[in-house]
Amino acid sequence: MATKGNPGDNRNNRSPMSVFIIVGLCGFFYILGLWQRSGFGKGDSIAVEITKHTDCSVLSDLNYETHHDDDFGTSDGSDIQVKQFKPCDDRYIDFTPCHDQMRAMKFPRENMAYRERHCFPDEDKLRCLIPAPRGYATPFPWPMSRDYVPYANAPYKSLTVEKAVQNWIQYEGNVFRFPGGGTQFPNGADSYIDELASAIPLDNGMVRTVLDTGCGVASFGAYLFKKNVIAMSIAPRDSHEAQVQFALERGVPAIIGVLGTIMLPFPSGAFDMAHCSRCLIQWGSNDGIYMKEVDRVLRPGGYWVLSGPPINWKTQFRAWQRPEYELEEEQRKIEEIAKLLCWEKKYEKGETAIWRKQLQSSDCTDRETQTTMCATTYSDDVWYKKMENCVTPSKPTGPWKPFLERLNAVPSRITSGFVPGVSMEAFEEDNRLWKKHVNAYKRINKIISSGRYRNIMDMNAGLGSFAAALESPKLWVMNVVPTIAEKANLGVIFERGLIGIYHDWCEGFSTYPRTYDLIHANGVFSLYKNGCDAEDILLEMDRILRPEGAVIFRDQADVLVKVKRIVKGMRWNTKMLDHEDGPMVSEKMLFAVKQYWVAGDNTTSSE
């Protein structure tokens, strides 16, 4: 990249024509560079050479710099030699530190325990940079990414053979194509979703958040976006290699996960709907413990969709190659547990059945005498907590509101006093503050709203106001609430029609490498200053960030100086900026862009 000049080096003296020419050249060579990296066309070496000498990076477009910048913390050791992190071996290209396949085999297989999170201890952690595969290309923009993924980004063809007749995925040249089919909807997700919409209000915004268990390549979630419905798709890392990776490459929210022995990392009463399409979960086993877990995360009035065995077993048992008596007993158990949970069956046709959870817990007065009720005190304290075979009482909620209205309306959890220390006024002020912050981000990084960043993560989401301020059909935000956060606000985030997850940033996130385009880290390193090593958190951020992806840090100046010094050795370009209210505010911003480099390549996009 071109050498950066002094912040005051005549930038304001450029004529409109020269600015227009520079912008035009930047755009042309940026597209040419992407074309080269995608493996198409010729003239690649020319594109690379010109891109090296063209000031086209996101960071060069920052319109103001901190008055301190590199002078911050010179007394804090910023002149110490920067530690250079080496690339990991190529075999770690798709490394998932808490879902490693070989490590999983050491754990019990009963109830899928071996497919749950099993992180490496500190002494065995990788402390190197995960490389991208050779030929890695920037994903296609949405909605094209829904249907096409560059082969080089996830080079696994097994599903194209195993699921060939079900229209999951096809290999065509140098891309994978996703026709939109699934095991239960080989003719496409659109018609299947329209069938569900005949019994579930998917068209009017009343159903906004969906949990899709056993999601495959997430075509169900991908096509729900047409109805402005957002699904959290979960699937284990198993023999169906890279199904969650495919989902995220397509621009669909997904995590590696399984219904096993520990509770799902979501609050009680979170989702408007839960869905299982041939997900192979034994719903009737263990006294219905998995259905009870779904009941916990469903909000009152939420829907549960079960598509596939054992529904319609009388007609399908031969096609499924399973004994009639086995399927009959399986459905009997499901119906029995649904009745115990006070779910009302609303629909059954073909191989699809739909139940609805009671809107008011008072409508289910007999349940407490028929089953064990869970303690309500810690119903959202779920991180690594064992599932209990009990029913979680529903918290009182107000009437359902459609999306987008619910995005900025004060959630009933706040008005009802379920979030201590957060008043209606505090919520509204938080909303205003983050609109201001996001507007500042957009002035600095002008492509935030362009569609360039589809998969976005907020590492310390608070009340979800960062995501609310960004809301757009071009993007989605994974709102992470750290397990050590003072307030457990994830329920508020879901009530706003957003999605998220609990997580401890001292451990690896449940995703594949290179799955997020933009990461927002507000106060994360102050929060964890006594929790774990900042290097470990930053290496995990590097793992899940795409090449040429961006990071926005917001934290105290001394904290960001240390962060900046670490990421200098991680092949990131950075720029420190003042708070939007001026240099006298101790909180600063650090913008970063991860350089492009691939396995076996000692060069980067900025060298």
From TrEMBL:
A Pfam family the protein falls into: Methyltransf_29
Protein keywords: Glycoprotein, Golgi apparatus, Membrane, Methyltransferase, Signal-anchor, Transferase, Transmembrane, Transmembrane helix
GO BP annotations, alphabetical order: methylation
Listed GO MF terms: methyltransferase activity
Membrane topology category: Single-pass type II membrane protein; Single-pass membrane protein
Localization terms from the record: Endomembrane system; Golgi apparatus membrane; Membrane
PANTHER family attached to this UniProt entry: METHYLTRANSFERASE, SAM-DEPENDENT METHYLTRANSFERASE
Family: Belongs to the methyltransferase superfamily.
Official protein name in the record: Methyltransferase
Gene name linked to the record: Vigan.02G257000
